[in-house]
Amino acid sequence: MTPSSISAVGIDLGTTFSVVAKIDDRGIPVTLVNAEGDHLTPSVVLFDGEEVVVGKEALKALATEADKVAECSKRDVGCRVFHKVIGGKQYPPDVIEAFILNKLRRDAGRVIGPFTKVVITVPAYFDEVRRKATQDAGYMAGFEVLDIINEPTAAAVAFGYQEGFLNAGGSTQKPQHLLVYDLGGGTFDVTVMEIRGTEFIALATDGDVRLGGYDWDQRLVDIAAEAFFRQHRIDPRNDPVAAGKLWHECEDAKRTLSARNKATVTFDYRGLSARSEIGREQFEEATRDLLDRTRFTTVQTLSAAGLDWPDLDHVLLVGGSTRMPMVRAMLRQLSGKEPNAAVAADEAVAMGAALRAELILAEAEGKPAVFQIKNVNSHSLGVVGTDPQTRRRRNGILIPRNTRIPVTARRTFRTQKDDQRSILVPIVEGESPSADDCQPIGKCSVRHLPTELPAGSPVDVLFHYEPTGRLKVRVIVPGTDRQVTTEIHRENSLSKEHLDGWRQFISGQEPTEYR
Ligand code: AMP
């Protein structure tokens, strides 16, 4: 690609690690080192009184001051507050993410100079609420978020770039079908994509925002903690500091088990010590159900894309957890192909995001698009109604999952009484017919309807999914040209004032407070 004049930066904001990439002067995506000289920054935040430390040092503090450390905040994104109280405070998870992004911004700025425009990636399976929260985190960190793109799509773009699909001529010879299996630290995503010419088209996507390497770690924690308990009748999992330290040890052992047939976890607590030797087979047995969950989702997604295993040209491995041999073995057995880890598992997503940022900036400068991304929505969008017979809250699906976006759906509501001036429409995402089992996005309030509408007058509400997976709502009252206002009152979302306050606080802090 011909580089644009402004730095094109992409950020993979991971559950356990984050990575920043940019397009260099030759038009090649490269990852940037942080202030510690590493390409991967642990997505961990230490709140130590007034001081906020992000990255490696915060990760180390998990072993000694776990009660002050926020880890895996991405798992809670979309919730009102982070699950752990830190220093007596309850932080919104997007604020914790903003601290991480701010460290990434400062560190990258040391290498490439100040910049604000970025593309941030999210799991394809993130719902609307989580996408909005991620965008807010970027804003609070002082960024202008150009786009939010899906991690597997970013990985496929990086793969396409590497395979030369985006180079001179810019198109593939024949359509390629890719299955992107992305198992990171805290999330699992599987996406089936087609690369047709210069178009990257998502055909189907599914996943689990609460399944990742961290769950594999916890199984090892259980094995080691139980061994400790058998010997000393004390369960170290009951003490957050000990549990943090044990997790560290076990995460390390898990990595060893990817390279060797056995690993040892030695753990000291309250002057007592226990040593457990764990074999790869035992580890695989203890985590089989986790792997099976990913297998099930993978098979379902391929079928939702309308493909069979022989139709696939590549199986792409993304995310640090795909280094576990059990993952590769399962995919080899399912697909009959050798899974492809040619794009660096940890860096592919950030590189794809940088390519996307480059595309947006180049287009803004009037240069032609080198490639295009076409996406699907990962969750069905519905409005809540009441079943007249059972009086239960039902989910009336308007846009089924895996619909190509952007897409607009229209639902006509009718006023219930004469001169009704407003309507409140609860919006949910999810597949269940019961609204209570779905994720509430918020309520869309339709106000300032024209006066003197008779009862039963139609009001059309248009739900529009943008290419980013974000939702916009518009209202039309047939037969009138009155301007009607609509707003989505979002669940668990910070107000504009709060966002601005945090933006000032987080991005305005002295750089020395971030390491
Ligand atoms: P990501 O979010 O893609 O950076 O993935 C991070 C996850 O990958 C963490 O759960 C790590 O423990 C895991 N991981 C990284 N390297 C390995 C390895 N060699 N074997 C097993 N898991 C790994």
What's the gist of this structure?
With 515 residues, this protein is of the alpha+beta class. The chain has helices at 56-61, 93-112, 128-140, 151-162, 213-232, 240-259, 280-286, 288-304, 325-335, 348-364, 496-507; strands at 9-13, 17-23, 29-31, 41-42, 44-48, 51-54, 69-71, 117-122, 144-150, 176-183, 188-196, 199-208, 262-269, 272-279, 314-318, 372-376, 381-386, 393-399, 404-405, 407-414, 423-429, 439-447, 458-465, 471-476, 485-490. It has three domains: 8-167 and 344-370 and 499-514, 2-Layer Sandwich (Nucleotidyltransferase, domain 5), CATH 3.30.420; 213-286, Actin, Chain A, domain 4 (Alpha-Beta Complex); 381-481, Sandwich (Substrate Binding Domain Of DNAk, Chain A, domain 1).
Quote the beta fraction: 25-35%
Bound ligand species: adenosine monophosphate
The helix count comes to 11
Category by helix and strand content: alpha+beta
End-to-end distance: 33 Å
